[in-house]
Amino acid sequence: MTAAVRPRAMRGEQVRLRAFRREDLPRVIAWRRDDELRRGALWSDAPFGAREAQRWLRAVSNGADASRVTLAVERRADGRLVGLTNLTRIDRRAGTAYFGIVIGEKDCWGQGIASESLRLMLRRAAALRLRKVLLEVAADNPRAIELYRRAGFQTEGVLRRQLARPEGFVDVMVMAFFFA
Ligand SMILES: CC(C)(COP(=O)(O)OP(=O)(O)OC[C@H]1O[C@@H](n2cnc3c(N)ncnc32)[C@H](O)[C@@H]1OP(=O)(O)O)[C@@H](O)C(=O)NCCC(=O)NCCS
Question: Structure pTM?
């Protein structure tokens, strides 16, 4: 059996990544209900209320699931919860995982919070001895694509006309970062 991935905290210059707790749930619910965030994060529009949030918290906070690690992004200056980041589909044998990030507090965009969180999560991935981190990003999300390019991700392929948007079907890019 593969050892569980404990949601151990990590600290950067401006952010701290830590396990989620119950008090965080109202913000998580607000993020999950925000159209712009859902669109960027590729979240479904399935209902997400208190009950779903509790279930989600149990799944991400006890570290029992070896295939994912989900962490809260907290601003160090004031301890404010500003987002979430995760590695999912962790496959130790293949040495791969998928990265995800949402900075839910939009007034905190453009301050390098996602960049630093990504760097920390890549460090965690390296500690798990992964060799490749992948992600999926909508082609109409230039802010995220630029973030990933600057961190060293390259496009591996394109799922053409994959996403249904009100304005039509949009491509999804698969990007990857190799450690070696
Ligand atoms: C994408 C997201 C995580 C970025 O968070 P952030 O904290 O603002 O990111 P950073 O400040 O670290 O970096 C953003 C960078 O994007 C770039 N950028 C910003 N707006 C851009 C635009 N319209 N076009 C191209 N690049 C842009 C800039 O290079 C910026 O860095 P800089 O200002 O230091 O030069 C955040 O906007 C978010 O949570 N969006 C909704 C969810 C989402 O899309 N998640 C990604 C799923 S794949």
Answer: 0.93
Q: What is the mean pLDDT of residues 21-35?
A: 97
> What are the CA-CA distances from residue 40 to residues 56, 87, 103, 122, 144 (Å)?
20, 17, 10, 21, 8
| Closest atom of ligand 1 to CA, residue 135 | 48
At 56 the three-state DSSP class reads helix
- How would DSSP label each residue in 121-133? HHHHHHHTT-SEE
Domain locations along the chain: 10-133
> How far does residue 142's CA lie from ligand 1's centre (Å)?
8
Protein residue with its CA nearest to atom 23 in ligand 1:
143
Dist. CA 73 → ligand 1 center (Å): 15
CATH architecture of 10-133: 3-Layer(aba) Sandwich (3.40)
User: What per-residue confidence (pLDDT) applies to 67?
Assistant: 93
